[in-house]
Amino acid sequence: MKVMIELEEAKEMVLKATKPVEHEIISLVNAFQRVLAQDISAPMDMPPFDRSPLDGYAYQATGLEDMPLLLRVVSEIPAGTFSERRIMTGEAARIYTGAPIPPGANCVIRQEDTERDGDQIKIARPLMAGQNVVRRGEEIKEGELLLKQGFYLTPPAIGLLAAVGWDQITVYKRPRVGLLSTGSELMDVGQPLLPSKIYNSNNYTLRGMLQNAGCEVISIPIVSDQIEDTLAALEKMADTDMVISTGGASVGNFDIMRHALAQFGCEMFFWKVNLKPGTAASVGLKGQKLFFSLSGNPAAAAVTYELLVRPALRKLAGHSCFENKGILVKMANGFAKGGRQRRFLRARAVFKDGEVWADLASAQGSGVLRSMIGSQLLVDVPANHGPVNPGEILQANWIEAWEN
Ligand code: AMP
Ligand code: MG
């Protein structure tokens, strides 16, 4: 087992060991937050026929008409209907938005640009052939590749699939992620707090993060710092694709998680990553399953989840892109404590003068969960960097954050 490695190496090791979950077929109505496990090509043209984008009159323009042009209205075509009546010279069809262009017509004049008198319309300005006609296949051509395997299904992507009639799609199964909160000091909410105890917040933070990533969370009650309890808890994680624990990760006598993982049969990849908060993370592999042991400190757990677990989780879930988005930010404020270790500072992203500024959360301690709230950035301060100065430009990871 390696001790104290760089985040990049840690990520490479976990990504290499992560295999995507299996596939399943679902109906499109359940597609939100799922990841495509197939390439999707368009089975049809969209729109499927030449159509009118507005309410007006369809006729055959030559560009040579004398103005004003008088036309006789010979048919009416509301959306959802069609007319086979050919439009001849001197004729027009009353047409509505979304309706198919009738044979013979090649343009649509806006209702607002006509004067109607009985079954006659008067047009003051000529149109060109093709004007105000949306061509069949203009948006999507039959056979065209629309979405690739590994695509995370966003609402417009799901809408696009619906637009071309997809009903059943092959997606990756939702990863089943086991969540363990270890610590003899922990109690669950809903009970009065006993002396020397604290409430288990990590379970709730990580549960939400996992749910937001489209995972199914399998969690068991709080696990004590006893190795037997920890081993029993690990046994209960049999039906999961990945396991994340918090607590018991550091150097104390009761920090037993990595020992428990080894005893459980994990091949331990590493213990400790050169970053703050969250140094005391370790990762092991048993069979195909990765076990992440994160620090119990609430901010450390959340930060290492974002930096280390999330890329692996994305690969597990079938995503084609595993990386956090990196951006350059300008520091809105300084941070005095530059240290030997690389540090990730929580910050709010502020857009000013065409740049992204990082406005640091006031408390950066590894136990301070509050500063994760509203932080969209983890500013990457290299090891041995020294104090961070206002105005300095640094690399940052864009993390998930809820707008408030
Ligand atoms: P540990 O990683 O076990 O050394 O824990 C580090 C700090 O985080 C200690 O102050 C713990 O009490 C606290 N802690 C551990 N687990 C949790 C949890 N699930 N929720 C909130 N705080 C925790
Ligand atoms: Mg502990």
TrEMBL record:
Catalytic activity annotation: adenylyl-molybdopterin + molybdate = Mo-molybdopterin + AMP + H(+)
Pathway stated in the Swiss-Prot or TrEMBL entry: Cofactor biosynthesis; molybdopterin biosynthesis
Protein family membership: Belongs to the MoeA family.
Superkingdom of origin: Bacteria
Record's protein name: Molybdopterin molybdenumtransferase
EC number of the protein: 2.10.1.1
Species the sequence originates in: Desulfosporosinus acidiphilus (strain DSM 22704 / JCM 16185 / SJ4)
Physiological role: Catalyzes the insertion of molybdate into adenylated molybdopterin with the concomitant release of AMP.
